[in-house]
Amino acid sequence: MNDYNREVRAYNSKARAHNAEVRNQRRRLDQELRRLNSRPAARTFVTYRSSVETLASTYTETEESLVGRTITPAGRSLLDRGSEEAANSAYLLNAMYGGGATEDDPTEDELRGPSMQAELAAFGQDLIDRWTGALFSLSPSNPDAARHFCTSAREVLIAMIDGAAPDSSVVEADPSCDRTDKRVPTRRAKVGFLLRRKGIDEGALEDLVEEDMDNVLGLFREFNNGTHSHAGRFTITQLNVLRIRVESAVGFIHTLCMV
User: How many CB atoms lie within 10 A of CB 37?
Assistant: First the structure.
């Protein structure tokens, strides 16, 4: 009986800590959105701002649609991470507009330090090496730091999904899945495959994952297309927040891909 009571207390303690973290992420998202909405209209990152707002509303709609319903632990984990994704996307945009938390600045060595090793190890050494190369490019003195980082980071995220959901496996599971003009499964078809493999059959969660992917890949396009006016002038604060946003995406996709 004593052992049972200890297990119950430990479970309840973890549940309270988890619920507190979820509430904190939701408050953080609301705070970042208020900061963003208080800013005057900007001429930079216009497309990404729209994506940030869409991701936040998609997360909110998904959360509200699942209230009172029983969802699997895997589904709950993705939903909780969705809150973090939305908050980090809004925080990144605020930082790009000059509102980053400079007190959290790392040193340049810390900015380029290793991370996400455990998550990427499941996909092979090649992705660890690519991610290490992406981090190495982060330096305020590198005029192409953000673009180089985003190019490599995009390759990592796409490789994670393609590795976990090979075309042949997606087609075998659903021969009528959506396909591109090249007749290969679409990214959304792969997302659906990965969700169902985890026992998740919720259209709202599929929408949330897809919107998050649109958000982070859209961010990469903003930098790679040179559509902003900050090229070569990113601060260590901005580069650190960019790293945080992409690390969050790596963790989110890892959660999606792992069975």
Answer: 9
Token pair of 114 as six digits: 């290793």
pLDDT of residue 234: 86
What is the pTM assigned to this prediction? 0.88
In order of 8, 72, 193, the CA distances from 112 in angstroms are 42, 37, 34
Q: Return the closest-CA partner of residue 119 out of 213, 258, 225.
A: 258
Contact by Cβ (8 Å): 152, 133: yes
Residue with tokens 């604060």: 237
Exposure letters 199-223 (e unless 16+ CB within 10 A, then b): ebebebbbbbbbbbbbbbbbbbebb
CA distance linking residue 69 with residue 76, whole number of Å: 11
- CA distances (Å), 109 to each of 105, 133, 249, in order? 11, 14, 22
Average pLDDT for runs of 10 along the chain of length 259? 56 53 82 91 88 96 90 91 94 90 90 95 95 92 88 95 97 96 96 96 94 95 66 81 96 94
Selection from 99, 93, 97, 96 nearest residue 51 by Cα: 93
Q: Would you say 93 and 48 are in contact if contact means Cβ atoms under 8 Å apart? A: yes
Contacts of 136 by beta carbon, 8 Å cutoff, 6+ apart: 112
d(CA 208, CA 57): 10
